[in-house]
Automatic annotation (TrEMBL):
Belongs to the glycosyl hydrolase 130 family. Keywords: Glycosidase, Glycosyltransferase, Hydrolase, Transferase. It comes from Alteraurantiacibacter buctensis. One of its GO terms (molecular function) is glycosyltransferase activity. The lineage of its organism: Bacteria, Pseudomonadati, Pseudomonadota, Alphaproteobacteria, Sphingomonadales. SUPFAM superfamilies: Arabinanase/levansucrase/invertase. This is Glycosidase.
């Protein structure tokens, strides 16, 4: 694993005050913070960094009286649903599967809401926790919560995508802001299952661009001998206004047949326009997963995209930029329920280095200072 000068956890479950949670006093059950992780990140006008932290709030006693229980937003409040234990599969601590439907149906062991946490300019110290700006479900389309915010500044406004979870659909919702603290709901922009929509931090030839990652249960095979294998890939879409999106005809970043760590891939940080490896382009960090047990091993990789044709990969590397760091979570080992996961969600250019925000072990927020010279390409277009 690469060692960086600054690499630490800056916010975690013990830092969340549940008495100020949007659920506080509105649920007749004890809860706890399962994780405070996967933080979207952007720089504020005052020079500080803002993390939009996903707080997964779970029932302290989810299994009782022969049932599994979960929290759901309903009609402006919160209720607890119960399923017979014999009809569920609880092998994954983050969710449980409901048997007997003929297809995969699941419920979550926690409800997620978003907490803005302001950091110092270098991202290493917490300046303020803005509980008054916390974001919780507002409608039936996100009755199981808001997950994994990604923040971008485009022109003079900030944009945020979130994954909104409900039985209606697994959709991507968009918010806009003039200061990155007060957010206006703009609506559902992708109503199919999509876990990682990342808006580029700037326009490309007058249009908004975004990385997407549509999911499904069926993927068609590449021909024998192809350098790629079938599975989730990172796609592109463009928009005239940030609200209406058209998929790009060109393929984007696809999983590699010979690389175990790209058995499943997805977007990480919204692309920023910068220079690495002697070239200028859109730098994007993404995750690759190596199969292992239920969840797998998550690592962070990078690609540099053409500044005007973002579907073209100028440079990349098959060597992980970030790997899971068990030493960082050692002080929180009593709270661990997953291992082998680093899930990068934000990046900021800081001159001779980049400030990278990640979720560590689905538990806490990790900040890493990655020097600019750490971006050493493998071969041109190698990750496409």
């Amino acid at each position: 694993m690469t060692n960086y000068a600054a690499d630490r956890l800056v916010f975690g479950p013990h830092d969340v005050d549940l008495s100020r949670s949007p659920l506080a006093g509105r649920l007749n059950a004890e809860t706890y913070v399962l994780g405070a992780f996967n933080p979207g990140m952007v720089r504020l006008a005052n020079g500080n960094l803002l993390l939009m932290v996903r707080v997964a709030e779970a029932l302290r006693e989810p299994i009782r009286d022969g049932h599994v229980h979960a929290i759901r937003w309903h009609d402006g409040g919160y209720v607890i649903d119960a399923w017979p234990l014999e009809l569920t599969d609880t092998a994954d601590p983050r969710k449980f599967l409901l048997r007997g439907h003929g297809w995969k149906v699941m419920a979550l062991t926690s409800l997620s809401w978003l907490l803005p946490v302001e950091l110092s300019a270098e991202g290493l110290d917490v300046v303020a926790v803005h509980y008054d700006k916390a974001m919780a479900p507002q409608g039936s389309w996100q009755c199981y919560g808001l997950e994994d915010a990604r923040l971008s500044k485009v022109g003079n406004r900030w944009l945020m995508t979130t994954c909104s979870v409900s039985p209606e659909r697994h959709s991507t919702t968009l918010y806009s802001s003039a200061n990155a603290l007060d957010w206006q709901f703009e609506g559902i922009v992708l109503d199919h299952q999509n876990k990682d929509m990342l808006v580029f931090e700037g326009l490309v030839q007058g249009k908004y661009w975004a990385q997407t990652r549509p999911l499904g249960d069926i993927y068609f095979a590449y021909p024998p001998g192809s350098p790629f294998h079938s599975g989730p890939s990172i796609n592109l879409a463009s928009s005239p206004d940030g609200l209406h999106w058209q998929p790009c005809l060109h393929p984007h970043i696809r999983p590699h047949a010979g690389t175990a760590s790209t058995a499943r891939i997805g977007g990480g940080s919204p692309p920023i326009l910068t220079e690495v490896a002697g070239q200028r382009g859109w730098l994007t960090l993404w995750h690759g997963v190596e199969p292992k047990q239920i969840v797998g091993i998550y690592r962070t990789y990078w690609s540099l995209l053409h500044p005007e044709r973002p579907w073209e990969v100028l440079a990349t590397s098959h060597v992980p930029l970030l790997e899971p760091a068990p030493d960082l979570t050692e002080p929180l080992k009593d709270l661990l329920y997953l291992q082998d996961v680093v899930f990068t969600t934000g990046i900021a250019d800081a001159g001779d280095h980049f400030i990278v925000a990640s979720g560590e072990a689905d538990l806490a927020c990790r900040i890493t200072h990655v020097p600019r010279d750490a971006f050493i390409p493998a071969d041109k277009g190698g990750a496409q």
